[in-house]
Each structure stands twice: as structure tokens, then as C-alpha cells.
Queue: 2 jobs
Job 1
Amino acid sequence: MNVFILTGAGVSAESGLGVFRGPGAAMWKRYDPMQLATPEAFARNPALVHDFYNMRRRNLIAASPNAAHVALARLEAQLARRCGALTLVTQNVDDLHERAGSRRVIHMHGELLKARCASCGAVSDRRDDLAVDSRCGCALRPHVVWFGETPLDLDEIFAALEAADLFVAIGTSGAVYPAAGLVRAARGRGVRCCELNLEASDNAAEFDDRRYGPASEIVPSWVEEILAK
Ligand code: APR
């Protein structure tokens, strides 16, 4: 079995990293993404953007994976033992999947614990704060994909989707493309699609199966079912 999984902020919500949209203190209600998460915002006020991502990086370092991350790492290992495969694509910039034991994680929106040179594009590991004068010759920026920028590894993502037998979206609102369009591409290939989320996403109608509840509860039980088959 070849499983393709797309995760979003909801899979890390119970690790205390918050989500971007939805009820309560969602990030894009508290902060203006156009002032913090665009290349134009970085050009206009790099110090403000660094403060925002430095705060998120510190929160990430203090956070821990939850049962949903652990269950997905287990699924990867078990499928590999059974000559199957798991492609785990995440929109998240955190490293909680890797910390839970997932080996192969495609970060289509970048990684918070990496920095990128704003001119040569060189990527380096980064755990401490970035500042306006942080340099590798030129200015360093967070290695995250901002609004208006092209996500990473799209060729690899679509190649993995071509080979998938099952498509599963976990903890994502389906509000941001091209990630939100992957389910339609999977359906176009006749692949069964399953949504695991706290509530119905914007593209819930595209899914054959839907399960709603906190990821730390519904993901482990879904993984049990898949492995029992
Ligand atoms: N368990 C499962 N799902 C949850 C939980 C939880 N504990 N808490 C919230 N959710 C669900 C919400 O119902 C919502 O549908 O997770 C989803 C989170 O949606 P968003 O906040 O929009 O996050 P995401 O879909 O990952 O955003 C996509 O947008 O802001 C950009 O680049 C950013 O990668 C991000 C992209």
C-alpha cells in the first residue's frame, strides 16, 4: 500500500503551536500575514518579520510531538516493513514529525529551524534568533515559503501523488493552494481520499471518508485500522 499524507497546522495544534485560521486565537487573527509573511513585508521591515519568526522558533523548540505525530511515524515504519510506502508532505514549518520519528518528510512550506540566504538561496540550520544583520554574505531570511512564493519540492510531491493508492489530509483547512488542490488531483486519478480534521475543511466535499475530532485521538485510531487491514 502506497499512502500519501498531507498534514497542516491542526496536527501540531495539541503540541501548543496554534493554527492560522478558525475560531479563537488563530494566528492570522492576531497577526496580519501581509505585514509578516510576504517578501514585500520582509523588504519593508525585516526586523518586524524576524521578531515574528524568532518568537515562533522559540515556541517550537519548547514544544513536543503529540500522539498524532507518533502514530504517523509508526505507520511509516510499519508500511515499510510490509513493502508499502508512506509519503508525508507537510505544510507545517515545525520539526515535530521528525522528532516523533518520521524519516521522510517533505516540507512544502519550508522549515522554521533553517535560514536561507536572501540572495544566493543557500540554506543552513538555525536554532537561535535571526536578526537584520545575520549574514552569510547577504541577509538571511527564515527558510519559509511566504504568500506569493512557490512552494518547495512540487515535482517530488506530484510524482509521489502519481504512485499513491490512498490520499489522506490531516489537520488542514484546505484554504491554501496548491496544497488544497492535491485532493482533487488524487481524485482525478481515482484514488480514495480521506479527511481527518477537527471540523469539516473548506474542501470537505472532495473526500470519500471524513473523520472529525482532535488529531491526537483520531489519527492513532485511524492508523490502527489501516495496519489491521
Ligand atoms: N486536531 C485536528 N485538526 C485540528 C485541530 C486538532 N487538534 N485543531 C485545529 N484543527 C484543524 C482546524 O479545524 C483547521 O481546519 O486544523 C485546520 C488548520 O487550518 P489552518 O490554520 O488554515 O492551517 P493550514 O491548513 O495548515 O494552513 C495552510 O496557510 O497560513 C498558511 O503557510 C501557512 O502552511 C500554512 C497554510
Job 2
Amino acid sequence: MGRRDKKLYWELGNPPGTGMMLKTILITSLLGWARCQESQNMTPEEKTVIRDQIVEMFDHAYGSYMKYAYPADELMPLSCRGRVRGLEPNRGDIDDSLGKFSLTLIDTLDTLVVLNKLDDFEDAVRKTVREVRLDNDVVVSVFETNIRVLGGLLGAHVMADHLRQRGERMQWYEDELLHMAKELGHRLLPAFNTTSGLPYPRVNLRYGVLNPLSRTGTESDTCTACAGTMILEFAALSRLSGEAVFEEHARKALDVLWEKRQRGSDLVGTVINIHNGDWVRRDSGVGAGIDSYYEYLMKAYILLGDNVYLERFNIHYSAIMKYISQPPLLLNVHMHNPTVSVRSWMDSLLAFFPGLQVLRGDLKPAIETHEMLYQVTKQHKFLPEAFTTEFRVHWGQHPLRPEFAESTYYLYKATGDPYYLRVGQSIVEKLNAYARVPCGFAAVQDVRTGTHEDRMDSFFLAEMFKYLYLLFSEKSQLPFDIDDYIFTTEAHLLPVSLSTTQPPCQGNNTEAAPISLEEDLFTYSCPSTQTLFPNNPSFAKTIRDSYKYLTGVGRAFHPLPVREIELPLHDSGMEPVEFLKSMGISLTPLNEAMAGETGSQKEHKGVYRVKLVAEVSQTPEEEEVVPHIVQLISPPFLGRTVLTAGPAKFGMDLTKQEHGVKGSIVKASPYTACGPIDNAAEVKGHIALALRGDCMFAGKARRLQEAGAIGVIFIDHREGSNSEETPLFQMVGDGDSTTDISLPLVFLFSREGAVLTAALEEHHNVDVLLLPKERQLGHDKPEKPLAMNIKFRLAEDGELEEGAARGPTLEFVLEKGEVLVEEEEEEEELRGEQQSQQQYCTKASENESTEPCSAAVLSPLDSSQSPNSNSGPDTNP
Ligand code: DMJ
């Protein structure tokens, strides 16, 4: 072939001294050893030890719930008592999961079967049947009640039925759990009484939605996942009970979401109006607010065998891979303008997505994103609720979410790579080390400080222990055939045999999706939980290896930062010039004579170590308004509501605050803050809201600072103003010195301000975070392109110093003697690297066992087995 891909390295700085080199070799060796450990095979004995450890942890968690909390919905693991709604301070929307129906018990039932605790399962089912009531006068979340309670009852019924049919246990069981599920289904149905068919977000278990006693029914919006995560449970309920109504409603809600997708991008937004179907929030990602909508399209196809769901999923998936997935990152974009990313952080809920990609058969991006997530857990112990695209903590809470364990399980099933067992082991160890408390496991309030929160959510028992236990179990060790079931989003087990159970009523008006997709190997394949590429773990390793040091954790000491870029290089050697030209850099082609180079063009191929010489000129910067944000972080907003704000030229410079400024908001009185502050006691220690107008911003800020506020959000008094239509501006002082004002100050237009004041009215306690919209590592503003002229040629001896003396230059000099490194040599180098890695492994295992390193380190060059090698073209931009 005339054309070859070659690599060009940018090397900056000077060669290391010998001491540094030794240090580098030592650290690299240790890291190589650690990496080997991660890829090392796990013996069956070791797996058993870890599985036993997981069972012990489960006993501690479940035992504590039963001892200290049952019949309450949840355990408060720090106070060693149950959380009873109404008796504890209201936590906002999180409490909508609590329906006084022993939530944790029901959510845990089928976990008991997975963990082979069949006596405990039988006891727990008896308790559920005898003691749980579903008709409480409580307003609950339709979504949470569906996935946790209805799903929990159905999963437990399916398991109870299976055990009963085996004839050993549960002989007394007469479908009581299914009857309870049916009762609960009927209690949720009033939520679907909307003109659109999208469900209300909340329902009163006793009084429904529109009943005067229901205390709900005023909501106009719901999240996409909330409306789109009903089909598995509702269809299973219909097919098991013979009542079509459930499946019909869930299906209708999915039809509406599909109808309302943005036709240009094929993406959906995060929040939708349940009455008219208009999008309320148009940001689109795969995490919070949308996540399980996509999951349920894929799984509805698996469970129900209906192609419509798969076709919809495939169309969305293509859009996700085009706009949202930038491996290893998963971004959030605007559904109407999807090439623009709308925020610079990711939420931890998206950690389920690699697992879904495994079901789709798309392993490469799954491995990449999972590896990124693993690196984040290495850095912060757990996945923070939100972390920036530079992997810094954006929001440090970790409520023991299971999504990362879930994806780890799927990746292990698909690859057979023992690396994923090591990842699972690290999850187990961290839970024990940092979340275990005497009465259970406590959520982490902030991964940076390791402080705990008095909560252990039911999904910890429903999901985390299932995925961890299954990761370390063989199929034969389970009391049922795991491949006969599909996991709901709450990890409840539903039998895929339901696909052959006809829906009780065939009539539906589901719109068949037009197919306009790039098809690939997996577009119509039946998802499988079997190893997709049987025991060839090396391809996963080659994919992972590029992301090993993504977050900087465990990075070898590099005195010479080397940035590698891939350049297509023709024999003529001209492509790099074109490539750089395309980046706006103009080059003078290499003058061989000048460089004293006498070899043929062929000799210029290969790996180059070069220095770049360039004269740089820069145009003076215009003054720019740095957009800021007000992010609502307390429940129910949980960081999802982000309001664009303008900065101030005075007061605290938020671009210099690493974590922004956080606080709860209080309205100033008077609201304009133009006179003495009447409610100073309330304002103290809070972020004040003050209306624009009547007096200067600086005067308002001074008065509120004196009253003890920790920040001020000014709200525009001009009705209808909003950040989409009105350019942002910087608030200025009053002409006098403003150095006395040290508060952070931001400005919201009235439409954004109204969101904030409405939130305050509804929820009383609203915590917000003030910070610049885009904060890049080490920069507060996106860098402007520089105008550059670059001369590109080989250096003469001693010329580097001369060049440096001429002022601002970049040096790009081809070093002689390092020109020719053919691919064969590269392979040789890599083989050498593997051999030395193997040596580290052997050394490490000398004292324990003689088992060599796994195949994972043996053939990183073998990319022919890549799961994508047969798939369609990469659709990433
Ligand atoms: C679970 O309740 C479900 O997995 C849901 O889909 C979203 N996440 C929580 C656990 O994090």
C-alpha cells in the first residue's frame, strides 16, 4: 500500500537526567505491575472469597434494615432507625419514593433469590403478603413506585413462581404478589389520565390524582425517563394478569415521546409538558432525566419482541452516537442544535450506558466510557453525582448508586476479561472501606471529604448486590437460568418468555418507525448476555489502554510530556503540511538541502521527534462577558436546572473559585434591596435574591453584604427578558471604588429569575451553585485562536538556541537519527513492553502462585478481533 498511517510525536522540554530516568523506570515498573494485577486472571477460589464477602455485606445491609428499620421504607444507617415519611424532615422529591409500603423490603425480594437466600426469600414474601399495604394516603412518584415497588413485586412473583414450580419451596404461594402488583398497577393508573397520555409525575396511592383529597395533580411537567420507563413493568403486569390496560397506557406514553422527538436530531429533551407534549427542557443526554427511556426501548424489544421498540431505539442510538457520545465522554447537547454541548459536566446516572451499549453489541465505546468512569472512581473513590469533563468533582454526593457496577457486570459478561472482575473487586473494597457503618452502608455526602449521609436507598439492595454477586458467580451457581431473564432498570428480573405471551389486547396504534439508519451487525441482532467475543480479552485491553491515565491518577512520572497525534503520511510526505494547514497553520515545506538530509523521501516516514519553531502574534483581546450559571442543586432539581446568568465586574471573581459558591437562597426584603434590609436574620449565611431597579447594583450588594449574605442573585425587573434573546452583560459598579464588595454577584433575566422564585415558593429550601458556565482546566475562557506563522524545517546544529533568542517562537525541528522507525520496529517495541509487563507479573505472583499474567497483556496489537471491525462506519463527528 502506498499510504500508511504514521505517528508524529511532539516532544517538549529537555531529556531527563539519569536520576529522573531511574525514578521513571521504577514508577513505570510499579504501575506496570499494578496494571498487570488488574488484568490478572482470578482463580475460582478468589472469586468465591469475594462472593462470600458480597454476601456478608448484603447480610449487614439487609439485616440492618430488617433490624432497625422494617416496616419503614428505608434504613437511616447513621441513626440506626427507619425513615418514616412525615416523621423526618422533608427532603423534597427524594421522599416521593417513600409510600409507607416497606419499600426496601419489596425492592430487595428478588435479590434474596439471586443470592441464593431462599429461606430468607420465603420469609420476606410472607411478610410482604401479610404486612404491606398499598392504599396509603401518600403522594408518591409514579416512576419510582413503578420501578421499585411494582417491579419488585413482579420480580419476586416471577421468582416465587419459579421456585414453586421446582416443587421444593413456596408451595403455599398462590400468586399473592401478583395480586398486589395488580392492585398497585391500578393505583398508578390515574396518573395516565391526561390528554396527551403522558403520565402525571405523582399520584396519591389512596386518592389518585384529580380527587380533591389527592394533594397532587397540579404538576404540568414530567421527565422523559419518568414517562418512558413504564413499559417493562406494565407490559409484564398485563401479560401476567391478563389485563391489557397497563401495557396500553405505557405504550401510549412511549408513542408520545417518540412523536415528540426532535425530527432533525432524533434526540429527546429532558422534561416534557404532560398536557401539550411541549418540551420544557431541551437539553439532551443519556443521564439524569432521560436515561431509562432509552434503556426501556431496547429492553422492551427484548422482553416483548416487538420490532417497533428496536427500530426506535436504533434511531435514537444513532443520534446518541453522533452527537452525545464522544468516547470516552457522554455529553449533553441541545436537542435542536445537537452539535453544541450544553454543559461541561456529566452525571453519575449515565454510568448505566456502557451496559446498554453491551446489549446493543457496541463494545468499543462501552469499554471506553466504562474505562473513563473507572478512572474517575480511582480518583474520587466513588462516582460523584456529577463530574466535569476534566473529571473534577462538580457535585460530590454519592448515594451508593449501582450503575457503574451494572456496566461492569455487562462488560465482564460480554468480554470475559478478568479486568472487570478486578474492577468489581475494587467496588466491593471501597464500599466496605468508605461506606460501611455499624448499621448498614451510608451514602457519601461528599466524595472529597468522605462524610456520610443518613440514607441507604433501596436500590442499593435491589441492584448493587445483584450485579456484584452475579459478576463473581458462575451461571451454574444460581437457582435459575439468568439468561432467561432481563433486568429492569431497578434490576428486577422479568422472564423473556413474556415475549411469546400475546398481549391481552392486540389493538394499538403504535407508529412504525421509518428506517433511515446506517445498519450494522447488531442493528437487528438479538441482544445477548453471553460473551460476545468469546474470551478474547485482549481487544478490550487495547481499547482501554488509551484511557488509562485519563484523570491523571496512577500516571507515570513524565518529565517529558509527549503529545501524540496521528497524521496520515503519504510517501511524498506532504499530508502533515495539509493537515496543519487545515488547522490554520501555514508551513514552509522541508528544505532537505538546508537540513543536510541526503536520504530519499522514504527516509522521512516513521516516528519523528520534532520541535516546532513558530513566530506567534496575537491580536489584542476584546473584553468578553463570561457566561455564568445558577444551578439548582437541592432536591428535586439535583443539578438538572441550570440558569444562564451574567457576571459582575466587581465583587468576588467566580472564575477563580474552583468549586463555585454554594448556598440556599432567600428573597431580600425589600426585594429591590434599595433600603435597609428588613430580613437580615434570614438573609445571613444565604444567597440573597434581589430585584433589579430603583438603585445601583453596588448599593444593593453592599446592603446585602452587610446583612450577612454570602452572595447575591439579581433578577431583571423587565418582564419577559431572557438569556436566549437578550445578550448577557456584566453588571458594573457605581463609579466609586467597589473593592469593599467581596460577594459573588450574578444577574438573571426575568424568565430565568422566575424559575428560581417559583422553585423557592414551591420548595422553600432551594440550594444553588453559582459558577462560570464553562470552566476549562486552567482556563476560564475558551482560548482564542492565535495567528501564527510557522517555519517547518530540520534544525542545524546549535540553531535551537538562536531561535529561542529571537523572541516568542515554537520550535519544530526534526532530530536526525530518529527518523526511521518502521511499523515492524514499533511492534517489536510493544512486544518488548509486554514481555517486561509479564516479568512484573511473574515477580508479583512469585510468592503466591506461579500463574502467569492473563492473555489481556499478551496481544495488544491484535485489533482484528475488535467488535467493531464488522460494524458500520464510525458515526462520530
Ligand atoms: C435506580 O432507582 C434505577 O436504576 C433508576 O433507573 C435510576 N437510578 C437509580 C439508582 O441510581
